[in-house]
Write the structure tokens for this entry.
Amino acid sequence: MDLETAVSAAQGGDETAFRVLYRAVQPQLLQYVRSLVGPGDAEDVASEAWLQIARDLPSFRGGGSGIRGWAARIARNRALDHIRARSRRPVAGAGVDELVALPGRADTAGEALDAVATDRALAAIVALPREQAEAVLLRVVMGLDSTSAAQVLGKRAGSVRMATHRGLRRLAEQLSVVREDREDGARGAGGEAVGEPEGEAEGGAAVRTGATISAPTAGPRAR
């Protein structure tokens, strides 16, 4: 059953179709929610979102092509409510440095893009500036187009495209730097002298890890 058919049938009360819809949307939706509220509360917030999705589905008018964006908007609103009600908790994860464990590829930007959907990359993404982080998550993790992502965030599609581009470029740059540091460290451990980069402060620059996205501004609420 394709997603378009599943949405239509689920709107008519077909439980099997709703399960198909849930299996198609939930994995990416949960990752998105995790980036907003942390892993400890993500399941609860996602469950609250699905309760609203199930309740409001009969009135939804977007078909299979719009269901992910609509679900993401609901989940984002539930996450915002949760953040307002409780203190945010840090996301457990090692961040950008863990990305270097992925197989080496010649295209660093492509590698960052491919890695976005993995758990180890989520901590790196949420360390980006908030607008870039949400744009990357909605475009790459949720699989939304620029227009749908813009509707979730209450922004223009062009702004979302630019934020996504900048976020992915920054991820690629961070990944490249961390991989080079790892390789230098490995050579140093093998007895090869490794000099400190000229002009760099002792200790080097710290890589931000393990943070949730700072509380996003409220976008349009799903109806």
About this structure: The chain has a mean pLDDT of 74.
